[in-house]
Design goal:
This protein has 269 residues and is of the alpha/beta class. It has helices at 44-51, 74-81, 99-114, 120-139, 155-167, 185-198, 213-216, 237-242, 246-252, 254-261, 264-267; strands spanning 6-15, 18-28, 33-37, 59-64, 67-68, 84-87, 173-177, 205-209, 222-227, 230-235. It has 11 helices and 10 strands. A 6-stranded mixed β-sheet has the order 6-7-8-3-9-10. Bound molecules: adenosine-5'-diphosphate (ADP) and magnesium ion.
Length: 269
């Protein structure tokens, strides 16, 4: 097996006396789309932030591309983060920037990092960024919206702009935390279609956290069910549907969910 792109060993995190992540072991390979599900408060968001190196574990390690986050200096961390594209609820769009500026932001940051010179080189770089932003806007079905501001967009449009921003710099790892929260079913389907289309197929990894299991089933190759900070299930759709664990089946099998939801009186003759 090739080295995992992301790996967690003995990962634990407490907030006060609350054990939020409890001994998580995880290795994720290049090329896959992994879905993380679980009840509210199970620790999905915290796990995703730990995997992105955005918060520090109390115990255990996270390796990204073979590098232990805890062993990296600020510059090395920044270099790792350049390879990540993230969509977290609290990393909203910048409301003082246009749609185009928001999406181009990761490329502008990278340009500053490269310290590209002034004059003609800088101008052509700006034109290149504008062209890539325009292309990505077409890909997320929002062509020509560069000059709008986020407050002129609907919730679904904002999420698509955020997806465009997360994917513009050709990241090796994409992390999406609840990308369809609060969206209607049609818009949610569009978001999942985009997640699949924008997945960095050649070398990348996409991890998507969502409650929207019916939309995740056709998109994700592997699933992880988190319960009270522990991995309760890890495997593909078939394994989940065959599981003897009622909680796993309830999460994955829509027919089981449906029959659980129907009161007994309603089905008896
Ligand atoms: N910064 C924080 N400080 C204190 N408690 C937190 C913090 N972040 C998350 N928690 C707690 O950790 C638990 C897991 O949260 P979270 O990862 O957001 O759950 P999920 O995303 O699965 O709904 C919750 O009980 C939440 O209140
Ligand atoms: Mg969450």
């Amino acid at each position: 097996m090739t080295a995992p792109i992301l790996a967690a060993r003995g990962l634990s995190k407490r907030f006060g006396s609350r054990q939020v992540i409890d001994g998580v072991e995880l290795a994720v390979a290049r090329g896959e789309i992994l879905g993380i599900v679980g009840p509210g408060g199970a620790g999905k968001t915290v796990l995703l932030k730990l995997l992105a190196g955005l918060i520090t574990p109390d115990e255990g390690t996270v390796h990204a591309f073979g590098h232990d986050f805890a062993q990296q200096g600020a510059d090395q961390r920044a270099a790792i983060w350049e390879r990540f594209g993230v969509l977290f609820q609290n990393y909203a769009l910048f409301d003082f920037m246009t749609v185009g500026e928001n999406i181009g932001f990761p490329l502008e940051q990278r340009r500053r990092g490269d310290e590209v010179g002034k004059g003609a080189a800088a101008l052509s770089r700006s034109a290149e960024i504008a062209a890539r932003v325009a292309e990505r806007l077409r890909e997320v079905d929002l062509p020509g919206t560069q000059h709008l501001y986020p407050n002129e967009l609907s919730g679904g449009m904002k999420k698509r702009v955020a997806l465009a921003r997360a994917t513009i710099a050709d990241a090796d790892v994409l992390l999406y935390d609840d990308p369809t929260a609060g969206l209607d079913p049609v818009t949610s389907s569009k978001i999942f279609a985009l997640i699949e289309r924008l997945h960095p197929a050649r070398t990348g990894l996409t991890i998507v956290v969502s409650h929207d299991i019916d939309r995740m089933l056709p998109v994700c190759q592997r699933f992880l069910l988190l319960d009270k900070g522990r991995i309760r299930f890890e495997g593909d759709r078939v394994a989940a549907e065959l599981s003897t664990d009622k909680m796993v089946r309830t999460f994955f099998d829509s027919s089981a969910r449906l029959s659980d939801a129907v009161p007994r009186a309603a089905v008896s003759p």
